[in-house]
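Issue: ligand-bound run for norvaline - logging full I/O for the record.

Environment: standard queue, default settings, no custom constraints.

Inputs:
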Amino acid sequence: MNSVLGKIMHFLDLNDFDAKTLRGIVDNARRMKEARNGKPRGFREKDEPLKGKALALIFERPSTRTRVSFEMAMKQLGGEVIVLSANDMQLGRGETIADTARVLSRYVDGIMLRAAKHSNLLDLAEHAAVPVINGLTDLSHPCQVMADILTLEEHKGPLPQQHVAWVGDGNNVAASWIHAVGVMGGKLTLGCPEQLNPTREVMSWAKKAKADVTLTTSPEKAVKGSDCVITDCWVSMHDKDGETRHNLLKPYQVNKALMAHAKADAIFMHCLPAHRNEEVTDEVMDGPRSVVFDEAENRLHIQKSILLHCLGGT
Ligand code: CP
Ligand code: NVA
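Outputs:
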């Protein structure tokens, strides 16, 4: 078990951390990425710091980036992974999350969960004797936003000096962005229809943390003068009200006209998968200001740094 003073090193939400810890994880990811420059993609780090360690990846929802980036991250660090779909486990037939946590803790050194509900993640972490990593829930997506910060800083410089605009649904990824800005600094403006604002819990956390976070219903006001415009799908994996969301979110599409309100050198980010010509036009997604594929690549580099933080390493 990896722990600091007996505390299991879970990675559940960005507002569980202080700025120094999150800064260390981002900077370490950048160093590891730079060290790999020019090396073949599947290259294993020479010192294999996670050699002998195993990570279970449990998916209650589909995934491309999270699955492949965690799998490659463990392999590059010399560790092993076991990929599990919740439906193929006894979990899918009613075994409790608590018992699953107790059992897996006897086999592996860490567990990543993509959860259908945030409470499943908390339940797993409460009963696991090994670190648990949040690979997305209905309420947050902290690993994604750590990769976003790495990407933003590569293109624009330190987060505390950036104005980030979030446009569309005030969803799980938006919540992790609010946490990130509250802990690490920077300015965040969110343009969301009132019905799809971030949760009251996350907004009251932002207020207490004195985060520079502002809500508006106007996408243009949110984007005005920003260094980076971010959006996400209109219907997340846990959402059921697709048609209502499409109607509410149509005016929030990120297109050339909306991007014109941001700074002339502003970048565009999206965690992907994108629903092209819904939340973002092809023109913006494939345009010169889009860094979405750097952002996807950075999932790999940040996962390695998160894994080293949680699992330690030699
Ligand atoms: N961005 C992201 O988490 O992608 P996947 O759903 O493919 O893992
Ligand atoms: N908000 C999206 C993110 C997908 C990576 C969802 O939860 O489906």
